[in-house]
Write a structure and sequence with these properties.
The structure holds 2 protein chains of 2 kinds.
Chain A (H helix, E strand, L loop, with lengths): L21 H30 L2 E2 L8 E2 L3 H8 L1 H33 L5 H13 L2 H11 L6 H8 L16 H26 L3 H9 L4 H29 L3 H6 L11 H11 L3 H27 L15
Antiparallel strand pairs in A: 1-2
Chain B lengths: L2 H28 L4 H6 L11 H7 L3 H33 L5 H10 L5 H14 L7 H24 L3 H9 L4 H12 L1 H17 L2 H6 L8 H11 L4 H33 L4
Helix pairs in contact in B: 1-13, 4-7, 4-10, 5-7, 7-10, 10-13, 12-13
Classes of the chains: A mainly alpha, B mainly alpha.
Membrane topology (chain A): Multi-pass membrane protein
Family (chain A): Belongs to the binding-protein-dependent transport system permease family.
Pfam family, one (chain A): BPD_transp_1
Chain lengths: 318, 273
């Protein structure tokens, strides 16, 4: 998750010189955060990087150094290639389908509409459910006999179309996408709605006075002003997809025949089920590098113009 | 807006609303059916209503223990991450010292670290520390991973508080600890609310960490319980639906009561364009 920091209303002057002994205070207040973060976030990532160069079952100290063999194996691994393909597919579907639908819905909810508050509340509700609960609920919904999904497709005359859902290697990834969309599109809708409502009335009033059509007003006023929010929501969506685990693990376990497996699921299988901790660490590093490189490039080239003090601006003493 | 487009608007909203609501209602009603009813009558109301599945689960103790574990872990995580995060954010917002930006950036980049990357070495580390099977093994990593978002949001908020407030407090003889505790934190209630919501939701929904830390079902949280229940009764759809419904209920109730704060909390931090 990334946070857009707005320029503070008041410029904070760092005139701390009058304080005689700031160091004990600094140390006292920072120590707990630093200790926990270093021990439980940074150290594990460093250890994962280290372990990725070893053949290691996770017990004792890694001794069997294999250099970059794990990474070489990873690049040649069909499963890993499949994980990447599926991640790209899900990213494409999210950006191409889920987010535009969210945007359209936010525009709808911005209209004067009776019960708008109730709709808003309903659309957002799945976001508060855990991925596991959502996944178990949908496992039942996709169940071949008693599930809701097949009854619905039969009802609207598509009886044979979606009969298999999670059991078919061709459909499972799309079923997974449906569940992800069900859970998360309301979140994106709400982001867009909040941004839409912060656009001053005057702009649209002026456009209407000038005779702009609804589409023109959307295209030339709303959309550009929503730009920053859309770019953030794309960012969150991509990072979320790259790191997908809970939903897949519970919904399909990566199956059938690994056709819905994601990077994190493969890592979990290798590390916790087969005790190939070295190899699993290499997969961890791949997830980490993909997230980090994407995150930094995205911030550098896409978010840069939006953000005052983006999370990675270094050395910007303000 | 003319009448036609208003009707169309309502239709689309209702349709989308239905796709959200129907699965949840299917779960709630399904818990009152038996498997025969689910097969023959998937859409309608239960006939007859069979509360047995719900009553069994509510009387079993396992459900309550899991809900209690989830709640306790969420509260402990939230108190710790907000407290520790606020202390650090205060320093990052108000004190200039060499290396501050580098240190803050390290925390901020932590926003992009997924649990999944660190989970293997974290497991090994927790094993060495003897924290497997201990709620601290879940709470402390959750706090550590929650620090980035907490610190980034709170630092932004703390910076907006005029320095005059701190100066006058200092003139009145308040030290930094006193200022932080008595003035800064009470002034920051909205931001503390936001980060608390994020921490509670994150902890309540966490799955991977409890999964690897808790072997003993005594400590299981609701997500673990739901998944275990699903594999145990895999053939009994109605019973699983009842369990899922009961597991959804706390989150949905909480959401119904605190919708406004929760939504504004989540959207204010993120992407206000």
């Amino acid at each position: 998750m990334i946070i857009v920091e707005r320029r503070p209303a008041v410029i904070v002057r760092p005139h701390r010189r009058r304080r005689r002994r700031p160091w004990p205070t600094i140390a006292l207040f920072l120590a707990p955060a630093l200790a926990l973060f270093a021990l439980l976030v940074l150290a594990p990532i460093v250890v994962a990087a280290y372990a990725s160069f070893f053949e290691w079952n996770g017990f004792g100290v890694p001794t069997q150094f294999v250099g970059i063999d794990n990474f070489r194996r990873l690049l040649a691994d069909e499963v890993f290639a499949g994980d990447l393909r599926r991640t790209l597919l899900l990213v494409g579907l999210s950006i191409g389908v889920q987010l535009p639908v969210s945007l359209a819905l936010a525009m709808l909810l911005n209209q004067p509409l009776r019960g708008r508050r109730a709709y808003r509340m309903v659309f957002f509700a799945p976001y508060v459910l855990s991925e596991v609960v959502t996944a178990v609920l949908f496992t039942m919904i996709f169940s071949p006999n008693q599930g809701l999904a097949n009854h619905v497709t039969k009802l609207i005359g598509l009886g044979d179309l979606g009969a298999t859902w999670l059991a078919d290697t061709d459909t499972v990834i799309y079923s997974l996408f449906l569940v992800i969309s069900w859970k998360y599109f309301g979140f994106h809708t709400l982001l867009y709605l909040a941004a839409r409502q912060s656009i001053p009335h005057e702009l649209h009033d002026a456009a209407a006075t000038d005779g702009a059509s609804a589409w023109q007003a959307f295209r030339h006023i709303t959309l550009p002003l929503l730009g920053p929010t859309i770019r953030i929501s794309v960012f969150l969506s991509v990072l979320g997809t790259v790191q997908l685990f809970d939903m897949v693990w519970v919904l399909t376990g990566g199956g059938p025949i690994r056709s819905s497996e994601t990077l994190a699921v493969t890592m979990f299988q290798e590390g916790f089920k087969r005790f190939h901790v070295g190899y699993a660490s290499a997969i961890s590093m791949a997830i980490f590098l993909i997230s980090l490189v994407f995150g930094l490039l995205y911030q550098r080239f896409v978010l840069r113009r939006d953000l005052e003090g983006a999370v990675t601006t270094m050395g910007g003493h303000r | 807006m003319n009448r036609g487009s208003r009707v169309a608007l309502h239709l689309v909203s209702i349709l989308v609303g239905a796709t959200i609501v129907v699965p949840i209602v299917f779960g709630v009603l399904g818990g009152f059916k038996d498997n025969g009813q689910l097969f023959t009558n998937p859409f309608g109301l239960p006939d007859p209503w069979l509360p047995g599945n719900y009553l069994d689960i509510l009387g079993s103790g396992a459900f309550w223990r899991q809900a209690g574990n989830s709640l306790g872990i969420a509260i402990a995580t939230t108190v710790l991450v907000v407290g520790i995060g606020a202390m650090a954010a205060y320093i990052f917002a108000r004190y200039a010292f060499p290396g501050r930006e580098l240190l803050f950036t390290t925390f901020a980049i932590g926003l992009m670290f997924p649990f999944a990357v660190a989970i293997l070495p974290l497991f090994v580390l927790l094993r060495e520390l003897g924290l497997l099977g201990n709620p601290l093994g879940v709470i402390l990593p959750q706090v550590a991973f929650g620090l980035p978002v907490t610190i980034v949001i709170l630092r932004g908020f703390f910076r907006g508080i005029p320095p005059e407030v701190e100066e006058s407090a200092t003139l009145d003889g308040a030290g930094p600890v006193r200022f932080f505790w008595r003035i800064l934190l009470p002034m920051s209630r909205p931001a503390l609310g936001t980060v608390s919501v994020l921490a509670v939701v994150g902890s309540w929904n966490n799955y991977l960490l409890p999964l690897i830390v808790f072997n003993d079902s005594r400590w299981w949280t609701l997500p673990l319980g739901v998944q275990q229940f699903q594999s145990q009764y895999s053939a009994d759809t109605a019973r699983i639906l009842a369990y899922v419904t009961l597991a959804m209920l706390p989150a949905l109730l909480c959401y119904a009561f605190a919708e406004r704060q929760l939504v504004s909390g989540l959207t204010s931090g993120i992407g206000k364009g």
